[in-house]
Design a protein that fits this description.
The chain is of the alpha/beta class. It has 18 helices and 16 strands. It has a six-stranded mixed sheet with strand order 6-5-4-7-8-15, with helices on both faces. Helix 12 (about 385-395) packs antiparallel against helix 13, helix 13 runs antiparallel to helix 14 and helix 14 runs antiparallel to helix 15 (about 445-460).
Length: about 575
Amino acid sequence: MKFMHLEYIIPITIAIVFYCLFYFRLTEKFYQWIKDHWFYRRSLWTKLSLALHLVGISLILLALMDLRGPEKRVKGSKVEQKTIILVDSSASMLAEDVRPNRFSKALLLVKHYIKKAVGQKVSLVVFSDTQKRIVPFTEDMDLVNARLDSLEELDLKRGGTGLAQALQESIQYFLNSSDEVLGNILIFTDAEETEFGLDIKVPDTVSVGVVGIGTRKGAPIPIRNSRGVSMGNKRHQGEIVITKLDEKFIKSLGEKIKNFKYWIATSYSLPTEQIINFFNRMSDIKQSEQEFRIRPILANYLLVPGVICLILSIVLKYFRSLVPALLLIFSFSLSAQESAPEPEKEKEPVKSEKTLSLEEQLAAGELPFEGQTALSYHLLKDGFPLLSKQLYQEILSESLKPEELLDQLNFAVAQIMAKDRKQGIERMRDLLVLLDQANDFEGKEDFKLAIHKNVLLALKQQSGGQGGKDSEDQKDNKDQDQNNKNQQGGQSKDQKKNDQDQSDSQDGDKKEEQQNKNQQDQKDQKKKQESGKEDQKVPKKKVPAILKQLMSDDNNLQKKVIDSGTTERKSRDQKDW
């Protein structure tokens, strides 16, 4: 361990000594004054607090000299890859020995590469006699694809292959985006170099990959007008030009570059995976070579103990004052926890004595049919609709009978309360049909009103209307009234129940009418919104045409800017393809 700023040791030492003497003398005077006036002697806790305070301040001041550990070698963090893609746009790229032609094949390979190059920054450059960067370093692959689409209509009638010059100039693009030359260069070309004699200097931190497009046999260069009509083949000194892939030049280029590899692309080959693996492997090797020497910061070894000493000094100094306050806060927190009311728990349903007695008789096999129906009713009343439903399913017949109308109604209520609303409502509908057929049934209208009321409550419960607890209480009251009616046969109670059911039915009808009205209003409002949206969509029909015009103008502008051929007249012996 070593202090990085030893030049500050003298002023820091003087500051520590001066502060300790001043603070110690001031504290001694204070406690001497306390002793003279109130006869209070200094305790051991205050002396310990003073010592901890001075030690803490001294450690914090020493930390200002930046304590560091021994030197270590650390590998640098992995940086993102940057790849410059060079596309040959010379006239020889129009040869059709690779389908559809060399230039179209190169664009296809570039699109396939950027689709696979996830996480890389890509720059696109076209070169012929000169080079032009059409896309700077970017992660927006949609932009690169758009520029590649504009290259498909590029005029390649003239221009040679200045590969060496384009490679040398592309290295400067790395310096424009960062302080170091580190990245990849990927070249798509037929390697028919026209500019010889250039000295290539590629740094070891740059990996170069060349994709040769073409065949060793070669092919003529077709010439077409703007309409795509063939005008023959390109001629030089009266003879048809046969352009061939120059693999020897590619190999000679690799002898001058440390991290180099090349591939030959035919009509049906896609060396994309091999290219990505090569660049990734080279990137890992270059990254492993980048090691840094650092000294770990150890100032926390002084700061942390210093802060702890200061905190302890404050606690010891005011210990007698802090203890009552802490005890008071602790007592208040305990009293608040004890006085906090516990949340009320929902009461679980409990079976009545009548229900338990009937269950014992059922278990002993001594309960007749009437007792079983009574047990089902009491289970429903006590809040066990699922058990009531299961028992009704066992004892009631599948076909509805007039003598079982009350039990069938209770069965339907049990189904609704057991969340089987669909079956319960269907059973009540069948009961209404049976009541219409039974002309001599006593209390027919009252029974119908009771069924309508239960159906309305079930529908409200299903649509999230009235709470389940209220509907269950009303159903229990209704079932109890029906049971009392059959047991007693009194006309006065039937009349009271009829009045109550009629009033409830009227309230339900009013609510249903209000719901229908609200639904109709919502439908009208929705229609207005849809009609308004249709009106707003009308002027948007012109947008695609405007976008197409902008894209067309952009492509035309790009074709003028991207053209890397030169208009300078060359000698008759010099290649212009």
